[in-house]
């Protein structure tokens, strides 16, 4: 298994639990793979699914017909074209009920190469309400030989009726040293300051750290640190932050910027004075609200950047207090 061409770390306990269940002969029919985004849960799901459906003596193709995946579709025809060309593309916000029903139609037939079939849903916590209800029917009465792997970044968003029918495997956040090793191997071109900022902001997620490196958020990180440390009475740092984020950033860059801002505040909280602590907590809560709204609301990027800068500056102590 690899993460952008480099060894995955932190999956040892998950593999022990999965393979122990396979060896027991009492394999549960539905699993939730739970943990923050960027820990390699989807890669684990694909590898585990291939182990599950493999038959001794039967050649296993690269694109296995008995491993089916559900993920958000490209956002529109233009994004579909990008996907077909192998370029990065934006997706719809949710997995639709029609996608789930299409998979359920496949389940009326037998597996192609063996006795088992695996369904991967990534991420399961981004399904439409109708899709969730449709999936629940399959979890309640799973076809023989069918197993579900639900990748969940926020498992609390799944219905209790879904969670109660699944066995949960938890993927913990990794130590910074492990994240740094992954980043150094996968992004050797990044300078040391960028890698260090990415590791600090990722909060134990190698995927998030690599996302920060890919988005080239090193200068953004430096401005955020200054905003929290110095404030911004003349609005100059906020303007510089908006310029670094860009006039028309895409959604992944905006979300990465918000995650980075929250991480900067979380790190500040550990060293904040009692007077500053409440400021940091309030700003962090406001950024969390923005992070939840950005995927749905059509924010003006420039105004959003100024809002992020304002919240970071609000966490700084006034000069007289400092």
From TrEMBL:
Top-level taxon in the UniProt lineage? Bacteria
Coiled-coil features, chain-numbered ranges: none
User: What is this protein identified as?
Assistant: AAA family ATPase
Task: Give me the ranges of the annotated region Disordered.
Answer: 57-91
Q: Which Pfam families match?
A: DNA_pol3_delta2 (PF13177)
Q: Where is the composition biased (Basic and acidic residues)?
A: 78-87
